[in-house]
Design a protein that fits this description.
4 helices; 46% helix; mainly alpha; 79 residues
Amino acid sequence: MLTRPADQMPLVDVVGLFDQIAPGRQCLLGRPVCSDAHACDAHASWKDVSERVAHFFRETTVGDLLGETPAARRKRARA
């Protein structure tokens, strides 16, 4: 059972219980300091990928994965 409607629960709230989906990135090569100013060899490529992954988890809801929209939920409630 969910604590709120599936379309109001971003995946980051679920996945974040088991894995870190943080706004900041960790260096793909494990360097303690990796930034635009002090970039590792993978920094530019990893920055783009990690930002897209974080965006997916923040913007996608459990309802999106279930194909559940508010309208579909209302329709099922009326049935």
